[in-house]
Design brief:
alpha/beta, globular, four-stranded antiparallel beta sheet, eight-stranded parallel beta barrel, 433 residues
Amino acid sequence: MAQTTPDWLRASTIYCVYVRSYSAEGTLRKVEADLDRIQALGADILWLLPIYPVGTVNRLGTMGSPYSISDYRAVAPEYGTMEDFQSLCAALHARGMRCILDIVYNHTAWDSLLFQEHPDWFYRTPEGNLGNRAGAWSDIIDLDYDCPELWDYQIETLCRWARLGADGFRCDVASAVPVEFWKAARQAVAQVKSDAVWLAESVHGSFVRDLRSRGHYCASDGELYDAFDITYDYDIFPRFEAVFEGTGSIAQYLEALISQESTYPANYLKLHFLENHDQRRAASYLKDPQMRRMWTAFFWCVKGVGLIYNGQEVLAEHTPSLFEREPIDWRTSPETQAYCELLRLLTELKRLPVVCSGLYRLEAAGPNCSTAVVSYELGSHRLYGVFSLSLAHSRVQLPLADGVYRNLAGGEVCVTDSTLSCGAEPVIISVSD
């Protein structure tokens, strides 16, 4: 585990911006102009999807994927200039916020500057051809980390961005790049920015097994914690998807979520999300407002880091293409305003000391074990979250004196015989002895 991972990260909410589709203009300046609104949601960290120039050879779609990068050390002209990036970072820092950059170190575009200058730094198939180990991404070619000179170049690139204002990195397909490289990179960046945030896109278990079965390197989530503060929740994400596809149960998902507590280091952190740029929009499958409210409250209460993907707050159902410009429709409604208020409440809740630093527990209770009971304890302060994830009526025992309690999610709840009745609304109770 990265021993320097700070407690405050447990209190954080990341807001992810896809610059190309964030506005009609698709520029960094337009993102900067909207920072007050983003901060008002409770976001502490702004994550920028790749902002670098995109390759043209074997480009997919009209504009190409931002993950097919031609130059790691430049800003795409359509997004703006390096000065625009620095201005955005300065504006974030003035608000007490941070900026993390999406770093794509597993592969580059076919016509990348790196390939033009150092073709020997790239992976070759047994036949000697360029390509990628995954086999599914025709617009990119993989790098070869057996080349020590590549390590030096990539690490210096990270240090450059840190000097320009970046406060950390979200590392794409981090599992496919050697953990020893990430450890060396983290150590070097720390000389520039000691508190840089490191988020790994750890991959699905099926991806790990596939690469390894074909003789390629792929790190597990547990290995990635040697270098990273946060990893993706993809280790159990299929269980989550199965709930809404009707092929799995909430109980199975909660069992997998609970198992993380005994699988990873004690101070592990997972990125919890209802959607991201690679997954379908939450509003497309959580159409019932109460169900959406319940699952959102639950995801912000479990231990980890919360993620808002731009447009989620206005209940966008269409996921912007990675290969075109599809601006988000930012029109609001009473329903979207209510959802934004919920996010503000939950992001404030995450900052409570008992949540940042307290002893965390998660249990499954209620009918079919479909009710999640979250608790935090720090000194005399305790916080309980009860979430009937199926919206079914549930009775849950809590170590609370009988009485009426304020529900931080709204209204009041009653505890009788140390039992709380809940149903279609999340319940969050804070008490001090």
